[in-house]
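From the pipeline queue, job 12 of 40. The input is one protein chain; the requested action is below.

Action: predict structure.
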Amino acid sequence: MPIYIEVGTKRSFATALDWPGWSRSGRDESEAVATLAAYGTRYAAVVTLAALKLTPPKNVSEFRITKRVKGNATTEFGAPAIGLPSDAAPLGRAELERVERILVACWEALDHTAKDAHGVELRKGPRGGGRDLDKIIDHVAGAEEIYLGALGARAPKGAGDRAHRLADLRDAVLAALRARALGLPIAEPSRTKTLWTPRFFVRRAAWHVLDHTWEIEDRAM
């Protein structure tokens, strides 16, 4: 299975090229790849929501590193930040539909996990840190508004309750993703000068959703 490595000085990320959102970090390349493998079953369960089947590698030897890229301060902070030159390649309709389904599946996984964790006190970190459930959901939505700007569109102003605002935001994300991938105009363009490619956007957005989905799962145990 092809993966690429984003190499930082204190943190590295291993990312599956064909499976947006399946990206894990470690203190070095070896640890990142091992962690990616460890999360394979959890990721496979998510993409079943998109009617896709993934058989994760049984061990790290089944991963094939296709490229290594140098990370930056965002990498060190704890988020994948560097795309690939190949991300600029056109995203055809069939592939666009597939990555859309995966992104929607990630959202569904977050929603299901948040529903299951409702009323559960999330376990705190070793020094008492960690957001509560509502703040995690708001954090993910706030990040997606920023990501949407990097995709080239403005976030909707939003109205109504949280559920309606979240639905409007996700609709705007999918609309902007389709417009960018298909070369169509964006209704409300952002002023961001350096834009993310659609491929990188989906990988980053899906990773962030799943990172916090799995955080909720782990802290609710």
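Job complete. The mean pLDDT is 95.
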